[in-house]
Write a structure and sequence with these properties.
- By secondary structure, the chain is mostly beta strands.
- It has one helix at about 30; strands at about 5, 10-15, 20-25, 35-40, 45-50, 55-60, 65-70, 75-80, 90-100, 110, 115, 120-124.
- The longest helix is centred in the first third of the chain and has 4 residues, at about 30.
- The protein is globular.
Length: about 120
């Protein structure tokens, strides 16, 4: 049984920063890619950033240069440092585990395990 517990969301002004954390239980963390998705009202869930067990990283174009994903394998935790936040970053952010990544790192597929979601609201 894999459980993901997220923390770190909140309300911040544009230009501010937040750090999300996702603590994972179970053995899946050490062998699989992990990622962060977000879903804004009326929009589809989208991949924000993901990282393989070996540290290969993928970012959505909209967050490149502003967000940083990292993982601490000893703590079974993945982080998302979000800087220079914009109102369009407002969404519920979800941690995802067990992602499937092609060997060329071109396709990053959703895993089967999701966190409960944490709200990030950026005011203008």
């Amino acid at each position: 049984q894999v459980q993901l517990v997220e923390s770190g969301g909140g309300l911040v002004q544009a230009g501010g920063s937040l750090r999300l954390s996702c603590a994972a239980s179970g053995s899946i963390f050490s062998t699989k890619a992990m990622g962060w998705y977000r879903q804004a009202p009326g929009k589809q869930r989208e991949l924000v950033a993901a990282i393989t067990s070996g540290g290969i990283i993928n970012y959505a174009d909209s967050v490149k240069g502003r967000f940083t994903i990292s993982r601490d394998n000893a703590k079974n935790t993945v982080y998302l440092q979000m800087n220079s936040l914009k109102p369009e970053d407002t969404a519920v952010y979800y941690c995802n585990a067990g992602m499937v990544v092609t060997t060329d790192y071109y396709h990053w597929g959703q895993g089967n395990y999701w966190g409960q979601g944490t709200q990030v609201t950026v005011s203008s």
